[in-house]
Specification:
Length: 719
């Protein structure tokens, strides 16, 4: 018979003693359990002891977490959190350097446990840490342990970051602003400041004023990958918490220091590809930089602004400079106005008598005007060629520069997600963004010439304007999927993807769709589905067996903590546990926690997950909700909560878990994979029928013959 749900069979170890195998009554007070264990080993003062897990994070067992103990768990009898906190508190005050160092090292290790951390903080332990840092007498290993312990203690949110003294913060900053300390101390200091910045605007201002960007950029250019990562994390935290004006100043300073080019050369195209965390920071830097265009994108043109009117007039003067050189007195005001209107019409404005009206729509607003002026000033030959070439065509075939530029700017804003908030988990950045400073404007210059090229290839008229812009959007998005490393490469690829290529791609996709919609083919698809779905199920389970690295994300910040989860080869147990940065695929034996698949009850996704409900209401980032899922397990319905690193992993894990639960795979990836496999299988099976029409109905079965005398009788031949 299975044991009652309130009883778990466990082993308890103690150094120098024979382990005890006991049946733990979950309804029995923990103090009574400890007394029984101590009595078995003849230990007095049971209140001075506690139980903790022997493996993994070695968490202390308390009344609040005792229900997490599983059958077969190995616990260890150790000093109680209160006794340990008292011992370390005294040890840190010791004059003996070795004792003090060992105490700080132990403190850094135990501070991960919330029970111990609470005991240490209750003894005013944080004041000890403040003193060590503020006095600045200790350095090296001792200081590193102190900063690590401080970071762990602050993770538990016992006290507010705003309670920190200015002296303490400035001392932490000083470790960042100098190269005279060990790299490990710099990394920890950068991490402390990164955690501090989002908590209040006051702390953000203090850190921004004290941390010298030059030193931060020096760390970013270091060869130490972890130091580089922490420097980037602090830089991103400062950018995200700055006001629009402060953010613009910081981005301008980064431009001045050519930091984008350094990232492009040494991080993106370095010896090692950027990891997940760095990829996320690069995505955020790209998103924050591009979002500086949002202000102009949402601003309509003011017809009374002299500055904006001058920009508009500069477009006309650059395109028709020879005609503009005619002396002012030569024409009357009416004649001059008529000439300007004619030139604005040649430029492709919808409202040539008052072209400012064309920029009233926001978005793209004034951003379109900025792009047009940049194109005219930085590539004047290409600009003049575009305008003059189209103004000399027949009216019905001319490509309107202004109208095309306004629509193209809107398309680029949509493709690049300008004006949208940064995702907390996305890692999709464009390497070519970091290749130069004026990325958006340079991309516009390439794409507006693409518009003219595509217009000519399509032999378009004004009625075809929307069709041309749809083709251009497709050319840009298809090219961006290749993630070209530079704008030059993007230009080459997008120009190679001409209108005839787009038509071929569309035709191939359409033919494939038509081919797969024939009735006999649809019947064949249905027959193949079960076999291919089983193949997908096996692939999902294989992916779960390989395992995935997950990140712990809190409402306050993107966490550095990692944990790994994988399915056992026999598909019966899920193993998981915390891992260190840099560990790619830990062996299954090193993952201490486990959940039997038989104990799994259901799968929750999105808003149904308990860890998304715990977040502050209304502030949960949408993409985190899209990546969240939880496994409900055990009779008591405990939950193991996940946030997938990307949508691909989310689909594979939710599918795999549904397979283990005996349910249908429901992710969009299942349908995509099934379509790909069906397409490949159908193509192979229909290979011999190429260029042969497949009828909608099967041919009729002929009537049976009037007699079967033509059949050969084998039995007579054998005789």
């Amino acid at each position: 018979m299975p044991p009652p749900k309130d009883v778990v069979k466990i082993a308890i170890q103690m150094v120098g003693a024979i382990p005890q195998l006991i049946e733990l009554q979950q309804t029995k007070p923990l103090a009574s359990v400890l007394k029984d264990v101590c009595d078995a080993w003849s230990l007095p003062n049971a209140e001075h002891y506690a139980l903790q897990y022997a493996d993994g994070r070695q968490t202390y067992i308390t009344e609040s977490n005792r229900r997490d103990i599983k059958n077969g768990s190995i616990l260890r009898l150790t000093t109680s959190p209160g006794q340990e906190a008292e011992r370390l508190y005294i040890g840190i005050q010791s004059k003996n350097v070795d004792v003090k160092t060992d105490s700080l090292k132990k403190l850094a290790s135990l501070s991960q446990d919330i029970t111990f951390a609470q005991e240490y903080v209750n003894r005013n332990g944080l004041k000890q840490i403040y003193s060590i840092v503020e006095e600045g007498k200790d350095a090296g290993e001792m200081l590193a342990h102190t900063l690590k312990a401080f970071t762990q203690l602050m993770e538990h949110d016992f006290i507010s970051w705003e309670n920190l003294s200015t002296v303490f913060i400035k001392k932490i900053v000083s470790y960042v602003n100098t190269n005279a300390v060990d790299a490990s101390i710099q990394q920890l200091s950068l991490s402390v400041l990164e955690n501090m910045v989002p908590t209040s605007h006051t702390l953000f201002k203090l850190v921004k004023e004290e941390v010298m960007l030059d030193h931060l950029l020096t760390h970013l250019q270091a060869t130490n990958a972890q130091l580089q990562l922490k420097a980037m994390a602090l830089l991103i935290a400062l950018l995200l918490n700055a006001t629009d004006a402060e953010r613009r100043d910081m981005i301008d300073y980064l431009k001045e220091k050519k930091i984008r080019q350094f990232i492009h050369k040494n991080i993106i195209h370095g010896s090692e590809p950027p990891g997940d965390e760095m990829a996320h920071y690069l995505y955020v830097l790209q998103s924050v930089s591009l979002n500086l265009c949002e202000h102009r994108m949402k601003m309509s043109m003011d017809p009374y602004s002299q500055e904006q009117r001058d920009l508009l007039q500069s477009l006309r003067q650059t395109a028709f400079e020879l005609e503009s050189e005619v002396p002012v007195g030569t024409f009357s005001t009416e004649r001059r106005r008529s000439l300007c209107a004619k030139e604005f019409r040649k430029l492709g404005f919808m409202n040539n008598s008052n072209p400012a009206e064309d920029f009233r729509r926001a978005p793209p607003g004034l951003l379109a005007l900025d792009n047009m002026v940049y194109f005219s000033r930085n590539t004047p030959n290409a600009y003049s060629r575009f305008v003059l070439e189209n103004s000399s065509r027949e009216d019905k075939h001319e490509c309107p520069f202004a109208r095309s530029s306004i629509q193209l700017t809107l398309i680029l804003c949509e493709i690049l997600h300008i004006g949208e908030p940064c995702s907390e988990t996305a890692q999709a950045f464009y390497p070519m963004f970091f290749g130069q400073d004026h990325f958006f404007e340079e991309l516009f210059c390439i794409c507006i010439q693409l518009v003219n090229k595509t217009w000519k290839e399509m032999r378009a008229t004004q009625e075809d304007f929307n069709k041309v812009m749809q083709v251009v959007r497709e050319q840009i998005t298809r090219t961006l999927t290749f993630k070209p490393s530079s704008l030059e490469l993007f230009k080459t690829k997008v120009n190679a993807l001409n209108y005839s290529e787009i038509l071929k791609l569309r035709q191939t996709e359409r033919l494939h769709q038509e081919e797969t919609l024939a009735v006999p083919v649809l019947e064949l698809r249905e027959k193949l589905k079960p076999e291919l779905l089983e193949l997908i199920r096996q692939q999902r389970l294989l992916h779960l067996c390989e395992g995935t690295l997950f990140r712990k994300i809190s409402s306050r910040r993107r966490q550095d903590k990692l944990w790994y989860c994988r399915l056992s080869p026999n598909h019966k147990v899920l193993h998981y546990g915390d891992v260190e940065e840099g560990v790619q695929s830990p062996p299954i034996e090193t993952l201490p926690e486990k959940i039997p698949v038989a104990d799994m009850k259901m799968l929750l996704v999105g808003k149904e997950c308990p860890h998304t409900k715990e977040k502050s209401s209304g502030k949960q980032n949408k993409d985190v909700l899209e990546l969240a899922f939880s496994i409900v397990h055990d009779v008591e319905e405990y939950c193991l909560n996940f946030i997938a690193p990307n949508r691909y992993e989310f689909c594979l894990w939710t599918d795999g878990l549904n397979v283990l639960l005996g349910k249908e795979m429901t992710s969009e990836r299942t349908q995509t994979d099934l379509d790909v496999l069906l397409s490949m299988e159908l193509k192979l099976r229909l290979l011999d029928l190429e260029n042969i029409h497949i009828p909608d109905r099967p041919p009729p079965i002929p009537k049976p013959p009037s007699n079967l005398n033509f059949c050969y009788d084998f039995s007579q031949a054998e005789q």
